[in-house]
Amino acid sequence: MEARHLRYALALAEHAHFGRAAGALGIAQPPLSKQIADLEREVGARLFDRTRQGVFPTAAGAAFLSRARRALDEIAAASVDAARAARGETGRLRLGFIASALLEPLPDILGRFSRERPDVRLELHEMATRRSTAALVAGELDVAIGLGRPGGLGAEQLVSVPIGHDHLVAVVSSTHPYAGQPSVDVDRLQRQPLIVAPGEDEPTVVTGLRTLLGKDSPALSGATVARDIHTIIGLAACGVGVGLGPSRMLTAPRRGTWFCEVTPRTPLPDLVLSFRARDRSPALNAFLDVIRKNCSEVGAALDHRLGPLGPQEEGDRDSTST
């Protein structure tokens, strides 16, 4: 039994006449009569009474037609659902990210993606860079945002592009001696109690601080370890010490705090977007399209990496574009 048999039966029931039904279907009457007869033999029951007044469904026919309408509706809905999924309008996207990405650029990106793709289920996971890289390689995430280019086993399978550049800034309480100053020299930080993020979560930042302040710096070894950037800012507001973190912190001003540049200007690792080169997910394609629209420089980098093919075809051509 095929969908066309259901359509033929429904057309015959609607027009109550083989000739009129055949005309509406765009076929000749003899083939329609044969198809209906074949359908009745397959079902094992007479579906239509042929009378001088017209062709009318039997009790068996009425029961069959009720199911046939629902079946055709489901087939049509299945086609629509498949097309939407292929366009990345449905499905799911699993994103791993470090907390500081919520300052910039994730709010704009996620907001736009949710508005443009409201039926894509977002699964968001805050996690450290190394953990999100491992989850991405293992297929547990679709995309990850972390610090620096991914490394370790399987990293060669990933496409990575920078989506944010940072440098070191300091945050202090508004009552701190540094408050009101546009910058603070790094040598002066050696004599201040510091607040930093944990090395497990931001290892490349801590490595940079050790290079800047010295591997055995008493200020760094005695620093207060905060869970994330928001905690750094909060502790600085309480007067605990000088908070050090990425310039993305400037997008989260808090009453009672003051931000100042650290001189000399100290670059920090880029915020990097990564995904598997062989990923064929339409939802990921849709997410990358939003990245292109929201961040022109990132879009250019993606186009340079992926070319006109898109990530799924690029994965087939080259799985080492990191």
UniProtKB/TrEMBL annotation:
InterPro entries: LysR_HTH_N, LysR_subst-bd, WH-like_DNA-bd_sf, WH_DNA-bd_sf. Residues 303-322 are annotated as: Disordered. SUPFAM superfamilies: Periplasmic binding protein-like II (SSF53850), Winged helix' DNA-binding domain (SSF46785). The keyword DNA-binding applies. Gene3D superfamilies: Periplasmic binding protein-like II (3.40.190.10), Winged helix-like DNA-binding domain superfamily/Winged helix DNA-binding domain (1.10.10.10). Coiled coil: none annotated. This is LysR family transcriptional regulator. It comes from Streptomyces rameus.
